[in-house]
């Protein structure tokens, strides 16, 4: 195969009717700012971890809203809690709190 | 003599409390770790013991620490503790000097006035004793009055809030409040009947309550006094008043060098019992003063930890700014205890940062680490490096291509194992530079480097390093004569004790406007704190704007700070005052030395532009 330096995206079809939104709901109940996110990507732009790997808070919220809970759990662990994202968020999303909540959910949601 | 039945409640209470203290002290001392016990043994017969005795006297009785912070409050505590102590001591002397023997039952000195009405056998001491006993009773009564008043109008005594107490504390405090009025009453009744006492009790007995049926009141009054003492003594070990005996033990152990470790230990139990829940921490806390969150302060946190386990909210709602640590008159290591409690709830893994790559950086004499927050405020990095260039510092910027977090935010939120991975990574990067000094712009990182890293070089904050450069005349600044306010970051002032250097540096160009109340170790937190996750950004901004306006005098609107995070939060929260980092301020007032170098550069830059 010719290496173009990039590959086609894997096909991801999300049936939102069947998506597991339990984590999204659980988070929004505990921190309503979770719902305020407009996915602008400011957090991703400043992210300390994002300099080294493709982690971003924006992607994290995305996957939770799509119901990709296990992905959210494994991704959230990459956060270093440095707190830059909270200071740049235009929507005042309490990012660090949400990451901590996701980590707590990781312990609660697991069977 | 027939056994005086009315002393029974007192005797039972006293025996119980003394036995309890003896048992619990033994248990605590036995349970201390081997190392701690060794330290104590080694240092038992040194000057430390004398110092500890003096401190116990000064803090346990005179309450010097509270007095320094608030004179009225200090007087209240001193009056109660010292007054009561003197009543006991003098009562004992009085009873022992009385010519019927040195050995008395324990209740005898306490109820001396009941047993002996004619004190003439004391000869020349009679006048002194009766006067002093009345004097100290008056002192205690004044304090009780103030304490009572404080419960209802705490502001009058300079406290915005007092602690909300649980049932056992209420029982104990009620008993305590009754002890002295009842003693006064009993002694006044006696004075009314037998003309005993001095200016206080004698006056009350002979002139105020003389027409009451004193004969009938005599026994009930002494009974009531004894019961209130008994109730207080029985409630003491289970209430906040356990701090009275525990504080003495704590002072001694602390003087011998026993400290809080990275997990709860027996020493923690001792510290928990030494908390009197006086509530001074509540007023020191900005969560209370700005956000009205007044139920998560150390008084409550330590209380819940003593009796069971604090809940999640209590554990997490704290900025770890250490203001309470500074305010605590007992000197309990509250911040460390809270961190240790958080450590018991690990949420992150132990190999989750494997994605981090370790960049290699050129070797130089000075390693500069900007930190995450430094990278969030690029002007701080730019200014610091410009000053380094000006001074001709041989430096290497070791987190130029993305910094790895120092690990403090994780550590402050109880994720010790996760933080350890970051610490190890950074440790390697820093040590590999083989630099002479590590300079960082971020006090949070500086604190972490100093306390938790194993570095082979000293760590300096950039304000210290720039101050050194200025002292060596490698940097010269214009004296503008303007006024400036300086905000001490928590981690720099309380965490590392660096308060002088930034001021010295600023004084090169400015006149410092000092706000006596909130500077140095008593500085306010900017609210940006990484130790808390469960307050929102608007709440943090409210704290930040309060912090600025506590320092702002209405005229002089330039504020310097020495922490990129403080700078960011303080600048975001308000628009009145211009907030700059110390490096930026100093760069603005730099007296350029190397004019030739600059003029050489200019044409080159012009070429590129054209």
Report on this structure.
The complex is a heterodimer of chains A (111) and B (610). In chain A, helix 1 (22-30) packs across helix 6 (95-109) and helix 3 runs antiparallel to helix 4. Chain A is mainly alpha-helical and 111 residues long. Chain A has a domain at 37-109. Chain A has helices spanning 22-30, 42-46, 57-66, 69-76, 84-88, 95-109. In chain B, strand 7, helix 29 (564-573) and strand 8 form a beta-alpha-beta unit. Chain B is built from 31 helices and 8 strands. In chain B, strands 2-1-3-4 form a 4-stranded parallel beta sheet. A 4-stranded parallel beta sheet of chain B has the order 6-5-7-8, with helices on both faces. The radius of gyration of chain B is 31 Å and the shape is elongated. Chain B is mainly α. Chain B has 4 domains: 8-244, no CATH class; 262-343, Fumarate Reductase Iron-sulfur Protein, Chain B, domain 2, CATH 1.10.1060; 366-468, Rossmann fold; 478-588, Rossmann fold. The interface between A and B is medium-sized, with 28 and 35 residues.
Gist?
The complex is a heterodimer of chains A (111) and B (610). Chain A is mostly helical and 111 residues long. Helix content of chain A is 47%, strand content 0%.
Q: What sequence of helices (H) and strands (E) makes up the elements of chain A? A: HHHHHH
Number of helices of chain B: 31
Report the radius of gyration of chain A as a whole number of Å: 15 Å
- Spatial order of the strands forming the largest sheet of chain B: 2-1-3-4
Beta strand % of chain B: 5-15%
- Structural class of chain B comes to mainly alpha
| Strand elements of chain B, count | 8
Tell me the helix content of chain A. 40-55%
Largest sheet of chain B: 4 strands, parallel
Q: What would you call the shape of chain A?
A: globular
| SS-based class of chain A | mainly alpha
Distance N terminus to C terminus of chain B?
Answer: 113 Å
- List the total number of helices of chain A: 6
Name the chain pair with the biggest interface and residue counts per chain: A-B, 28 and 35 residues
State the end-to-end distance of chain A.
42 Å
Report Rg of chain B.
31 Å
Uncertain regions of chain A: pLDDT < 50 for 5+ in a row?
none
Main sheet summary of chain A: none
Indicate the low-confidence ranges of chain B by residue numbers. 596-610
